[in-house]
What we know:
Structural class: mainly beta
Amino acid sequence: xxxxxxxxxxxxxxxxxxxxxxxxxxxxxxxxxxxxxxxxxxxxxxxxxxxxxxxxxxxxxxxxxxxxxxxxxxxxxxxxxxxxxxxxxxxxxxxxxxxxxxxxxxxxxxxxxxxxxxxxxxxxx
Length: 125
């Protein structure tokens, strides 16, 4: 069984949509690395590792909680819209996803993709 993301996460999402992430894997452990991708930077690649840890799989599943809260803490001193690279590694399998994340502790009626549109004034909601 390959590594697969069971929780549907849109490419542009709110931090409140990242409170529970489930994956399936045939390996015993899964490593998650989250990297912040700066929009503007002057040297290097503009990436900063925000989080990295290993999780144990149970019955071919891994569920990760409170990633949204972790990103909210990181985003407190930044603009309310940031880009993060999620890299999941499990055995020889890997899955990398890039998300544009909007700081928001609740789930508004408007989609994150619409709120991220340039005509909206994006802040923390």
